[in-house]
Amino acid sequence: MNFSSHIDAVVTVAVELVNSLTPGEAHGREYVPPDGKELAALATGALRAGRTDTRNVSPAEAAELGDLAWAMRLVFIDVVAGRLDEAAGQVNELLARTGARPQLDRHDGEPWHLHFHGPTDALATGWAAGCATGLAVVLGSELHGRLGVCTADRCDRVFVDTSKNGTRRFCSTACRNRVKATAFRARRA
User: Fold this and answer.
1) Which of 103, 113, 117, 178 is deepest in the core (most CB within 10 A)?
2) What mean pLDDT, rounded, does the chain reach?
3) Could you tell me the CATH number of the domain that includes residue 38?
4) In a domain, 42, yes or no
5) What's the rounded Cα separation, in Å, for the pair 93 and 115?
6) Residue 40 lies in domain
7) Is residue 111 part of a domain?
8) Would you list the DSSP string of the chain?
9) Domain annotation covers residue 186
10) How much is the pLDDT for 104?
11) Residue 90 and residue 30: Cα distance in Å, rounded?
12) What is the total count of domains within the chain?
């Protein structure tokens, strides 16, 4: 999928934040995000998935990002359930909460590029504004069905379907293989 390089990056970060910072089930096991420095390390990794941010996230910033990630998770859940009005409402709430606003910015020797937050916004607010805007772009297009939640048993991790035919059902190869192995064992029994 190529919404635009910046939109791709912020949607990728949204997926990483949701999967790293929200509790649920992952790959057949209960998932509880850590706290403190471990949560901060996960949040730092999630932001680096966008290939633009190299700062380390503090534990307080990670906790704030976790709260915002839960709101983003609800967008994926609503889209998969066919509740586009609710998903759009959730994105609109995130946009308002973060004060998202487009502006061109240039820093660290980079060329002009689009940001969705002001230069003085806190790290969590700035990233959540970008992620909310990215999700808004996806929801406002015919590609909203590319947002997904893993269909494997005991997994609720989210993903963006970047396949050519738009038929992805799993968050990872591990979940796909787990489902296939279970089906194989069932057929053999």
Assistant:
1) 117
2) 91
3) 1.10.3300.10
4) yes
5) 19
6) 5-144
7) yes
8) --S-HHHHHHHHHHHHHHHHHS-EEETTEEE----HHHHHHHHHHHHHTTTS--PPPPHHHHHHHHHHHHHHHHHHHHHHTT-HHHHHHHHHHHHHHHT---EEE--TTPPPEEESS-TTS-HHHHHHHHHHHHHHHHHTSTTGGGEEE--STT---EEE--SSSS----SSHHHHHHHHHHHHHHHH-
9) no
10) 86
11) 26
12) 1
**183 within domain boundaries:** no
pLDDT at 1: 47
Q: Which of 107-111, 124-128, 159-163 has the lowest mean pLDDT?
A: 107-111
Residue type, 141: S
Q: Which residue has the higher pLDDT, 91 or 4?
A: 91
How many other CB atoms sit within 10 Å of the CB of residue 138? Answer: 24
Token pair 């609710």 in the structure block, residue: 86
pLDDT tens digit sequence for 93-114: 999 999 998 888 877 787 887 7
d(CA 19, CA 157): 5
CA–CA gap between residue 95 and residue 107 (Å, rounded): 24
pLDDT at 185 over 50: yes
Let me know how long the chain is. 189
The residue assigned the tokens 């990233």 is 127
Question: pLDDT value at position 4?
Answer: 64
105 or 77: whose pLDDT is higher?
Answer: 77
